[in-house]
Amino acid sequence: MKLTGRDANAYFAKPDPDRTGLLIYGADAMRVAIKRQQVLKALLGPTAEEEMRLTRLPGADLRKDPALVLDGIKAVGFFPGIRAVFVEDAGEAALPALENALSQWQQGDAQIIVTAGALKPASKLRKLFETHRNTYAAGLYDDPPDRAEIERMLAQSGIAAISSDGMAALTDLANRLGPGDFAQTVEKLGLYKLGDGTDLGVSDIAACMPQSTEAGLDDVMNAVAESRESEIGPLIRRLRAQGTNAVTLCIGAMRHFRTLYAVASAPGGPAEGIGRLRPPVFGKRRDQLVRQAQTWGPDKLQRALTLLTDTDLQLRSAGQTAPSLALVERALIRLAMLGKPR
Q: Which site in 11, 67, 207, 332 is 20 to 30 Å from 149, CA atoms measured?
């Protein structure tokens, strides 16, 4: 049978111990791995590995030795409890072994949990699990987790309460991060809030979210927008050491100043403009953008965008001979001087 959407998430959280098996497939290997871990933990408990109630089989091995799955589901364990055979990264070559195991499965045998990559609707492996009367097949796609899934992950990490702003910020983060990074962030939040009885808020999320080159770019842009020109050179050198090039830096500056212009030029002023941004901005970052937009104003921001456009054209010019990063650094210092009150 086929599982989709909310039904799939509900089954992953509470799998049926009387089922013959489950196929989890999808193009994103990390999403598949996270759901497989969730299912196995919910089905077998946290001590299955130590109690030898879980047998792991690489899908590629079934082509050479098809009897591995059947032997695994029929084996009698020393410890009591539900058992499972996990077949990892199965392909169409594993089909004969899995067909044979499913046909000979009986009540009390180990459950068969299979993971695979992206499978087309015509896939024989997918059809095997979708048409079998006692198995499920669940396809995972590149959709970010919904509110119910985020709340489940938070509860699993020991976080019982979250503010409305915190949930909005976490939902936005889930849309921007990959599944693995987001899962690690939620785990980190659980440790960060350990023993803290307050609701999870925006400041907590900001403290635990992954640090990346984007954060470094934000540091440079804030130094420019706040006219801290002495900090620009050292920050750019740090980004260069991380592999950031001049074009990336220029694009980041254009994006930041376009955002400021959108905030500053709103009919109701920056307070209205910040509320129109998509994705939304929260916490200290929100206050910072409003303050920068108020300091610059629409006219100065237009001049800043003109300067950045000219710099971008210079970078892309065939006759450009000056060092690219030096060119961008000079433009950013000029911007910082432009933003100073006169």
A: 207
